[in-house]
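Practice problem 4.
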C-alpha cells in the first residue's frame, strides 16, 4: 500500500482515516521516512576533495563498491533528526514513572556549570599542575559523598552503577584475600528480590551465589540470613530501600550478623535517593555501596553514555579502594595513579582508564551545592511523599502486594486486580502510551506477579500527580468494566502501533533494503 508520497506505508504505523491528508502528516504529527528513503545517492551535502594517492592498509578488505549512504542538505538533515526527537518521550516531555530507574529532572544550572571552561574542556592527560581546580572539585564531591553516607573512602572512577558495584565487590574480595581467606570464603548471599546485576557481579569475579528468600512482607529477615551464614560466606548484597519500594527494617541486625560471621555487607545503593539526609548507610553497618549519580544527584541517566557510579567504602575496606584517587601532596593536590604510589593503602587495582566522568562530577556537585543538606533531605522526603500519594490515590482500584505498609520512593502494584478482565500488565502499560505517559516499570521485581512499579520522583507537582492518578483510575475502571478493546490493541495513537517485541529481539533487521518496485496497473 502506498501513501500519497508514493512510498509504502511503514508496517505498524498508526492510521487515522477519518480525516486523511495528502502528505500523511497530521499537523505536527509528521511522518518521517528513513534517511535512506529521502536521501539522494548521487549527491552529497558537502564538498569532499578527491584524496591523494595512497596505499590501502586493510589487507584486501577495503570496500570496492559504493558506500551506499544518502546525501542530504543541512536543512533536510536537521529536520529529520528534529522530527525524530519529537517522537521521543523524555523527562522534559512529561512525568516519567519508571520505578527503580529514577528519571529525575536534570536542572539546567548543572548543565551550565558542566560547560564552564576548565571543566568542559579538561583533558585526562593534562599535567596535574594545570587541573588543580578539577582535582579540588573531585575531592569536594568525595567529601560530600562520604559525609552523606557515613563512610571513610570513595572511588569516583566507576562509570555506572553496576560498574561501581563491581568495584565494591572487588574491594571486598581484596580484603578477604588480604586476610588469607580467599580460598575459603567463596559464597555471596543475594536476596531473591535483588537487582539482576547483583548475582551477575558476584559470579563475574568468581564467587558462588546463594539465594536468600524475601518473605511475603517484602523484607529480608535476619533469621533467613543467619541460616545461610557459614565460614564460606564472603558477603551479602542487599538493596535498601529494596526493589519492592520498602525500607529494610532489620538491616542493622543483618549487618551485625554478617560481621560476626567474618563477612562484609555490600549495599546496592540504587535507591539511595529515598534516604539522603534521612539515614546514613554507614551508620546502618554497610561496608560498600555504589551510588548512581543519575538517580540520586540529578546527572543525566544512562550508563551507555556519560555515566558515573561512585562506590563508598567503610573503614574496613578503605585501604583497598582502587586507583586513581585524589590526595593532598607536598605541592598541591595530586592524582594517585598507581598502586605503588598509594603508601600504606592496598588498592586492588583500577576499574577504568583515567579518573572517570568529570562532567558528571560537576553536575552532581552543582546539585549538592544548590540544594544544601536541608534541600537534599527535602528532596528525599518529597520523593517518598509523592510515591505514597500515588499509592493512596490508587489503593481502592489497584492491588498492592504490600499495601499494609507505607512505601518509600516508589510504589508497587501487582496484577491481582486485573484477574478475569482479559487485560494484562503489558496491555495496561501500552494503554498508558495513548494517554501521553511513558509506562511504569513492568514485571519487576520478579517476586511479584505482574508487577507495576511506579516512581514519580520529588520533582513532580501535586497537579501533575493528580492528573496521573486520575488517568490511571480511568484506565483501571475501563479494564474492570470490560472495555478490553481499549487495551489489547494499544497504543493506538503512537507513531507506531504495538510491535512484536519478542520477534524484534530474536530476528532483528539490521540492514535497510530498498522495497521492491511497485508495478503500476496498465491503463
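Answer key:
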Amino acid at each position: 500500500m502506498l501513501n500519497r508520497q508514493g512510498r509504502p506505508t511503514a508496517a505498524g504505523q498508526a492510521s487515522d482515516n477519518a480525516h486523511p491528508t495528502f502528505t500523511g502528516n497530521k499537523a505536527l504529527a509528521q511522518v518521517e521516512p528513513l534517511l535512506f528513503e529521502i536521501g539522494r545517492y548521487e549527491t552529497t551535502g558537502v564538498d569532499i576533495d578527491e584524496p591523494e594517492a595512497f596505499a590501502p592498509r586493510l589487507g584486501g578488505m577495503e570496500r570496492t563498491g559504493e558506500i551506499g549512504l544518502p546525501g542530504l542538505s543541512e536543512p533536510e538533515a536537521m529536520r529529520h533528526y528534529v522530527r525524530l526527537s519529537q517522537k521521543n518521550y523524555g523527562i522534559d516531555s512529561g512525568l516519567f514513572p519508571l520505578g527503580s530507574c529514577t528519571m529525575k529532572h536534570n536542572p539546567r544550572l548543572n548543565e551550565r556549570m558542566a560547560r564552564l571552561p576548565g571543566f568542559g574542556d579538561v583533558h585526562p592527560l593534562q599535567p596535574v599542575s594545570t587541573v588543580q581546580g578539577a582535582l579540588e572539585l573531585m575531592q569536594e564531591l568525595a567529601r560530600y559523598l562520604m559525609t552523606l553516607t557515613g563512610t571513610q573512602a570513595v572511588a569516583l572512577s566507576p562509570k555506572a552503577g553496576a560498574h561501581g558495584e563491581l568495584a565494591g565487590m572487588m574491594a571486598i574480595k581484596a580484603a578477604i584475600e588480604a586476610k588469607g581467606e580467599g580460598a575459603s570464603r567463596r559464597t555471596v548471599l543475594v536476596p531473591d528480590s535483588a537487582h539482576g546485576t547483583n548475582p551477575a557481579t558476584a559470579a563475574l569475579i568468581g564467587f558462588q551465589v546463594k539465594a536468600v528468600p524475601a518473605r511475603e512482607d517484602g523484607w529480608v529477615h535476619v533469621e533467613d540470613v543467619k541460616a545461610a551464614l557459614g565460614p564460606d560466606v564472603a558477603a551479602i548484597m542487599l538493596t535498601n530501600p529494596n526493589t519492592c519500594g520498602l525500607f529494610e527494617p532489620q538491616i542493622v541486625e543483618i549487618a551485625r550478623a554478617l560481621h560476626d560471621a567474618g563477612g562484609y555487607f555490600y549495599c546496592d545503593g540504587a535507591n539511595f535517593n529515598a534516604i539522603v539526609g534521612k539515614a546514613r548507610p554507614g551508620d546502618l553497618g554497610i561496608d560498600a555501596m555504589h551510588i548512581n549519580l543519575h538517580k540520586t544527584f540529578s546527572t543525566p541517566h544512562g550508563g551507555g553514555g556519560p555515566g558515573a557510579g561512585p562506590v563508598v567504602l567503610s573503614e574496613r575496606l578503605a585501604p583497598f579502594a582502587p586507583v586513581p584517587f585524589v590526595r593532598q601532596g607536598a605541592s598541591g593536590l595530586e592524582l594517585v595513579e598507581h598502586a605503588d604510589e598509594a603508601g600504606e593503602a592496598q588498592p586492588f587495582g583500577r576499574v577504568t582508564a583515567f579518573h572517570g566522568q568529570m562532567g558528571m562530577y560537576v553536575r552532581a556537585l552543582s546539585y549538592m551545592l544548590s540544594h544544601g543538606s536541608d534541600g537534599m533531605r527535602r528532596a528525599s522526603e518529597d520523593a517518598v511523599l509523592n510515591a505514597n500519594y500515588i499509592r493512596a490515590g490508587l489503593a481502592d482500584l489497584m492491588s498492592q502486594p504490600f499495601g499494609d505498609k507505607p512505601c518509600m520512593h516508589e510504589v508497587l502494584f501487582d496484577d491481582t486486580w486485573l484477574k478475569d478482565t482479559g487485560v494484562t500488565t503489558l496491555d495496561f502499560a501500552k494503554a498508558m502510551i495513548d494517554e501521553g505517559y511513558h509506562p511504569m516499570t513492568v514485571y519487576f521485581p520478579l517476586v511479584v506477579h505482574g508487577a507495576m512499579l511506579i516512581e514519580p520522583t520529588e520533582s513532580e507537582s501535586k497537579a501533575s500527580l493528580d492528573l496521573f492518578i486520575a488517568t490511571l483510575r480511568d484506565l483501571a475502571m475501563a479494564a474492570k468494566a470490560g472495555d478490553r478493546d481499549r487495551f489489547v490493541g494499544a497504543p493506538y495513537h503512537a507513531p507506531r502501533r504495538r510491535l512484536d517485541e519478542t520477534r524484534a529481539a530474536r530476528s532483528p533487521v539490521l540492514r535497510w533494503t530498498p522495497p521492491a518496485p511497485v508495478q503500476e496497473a496498465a491503463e
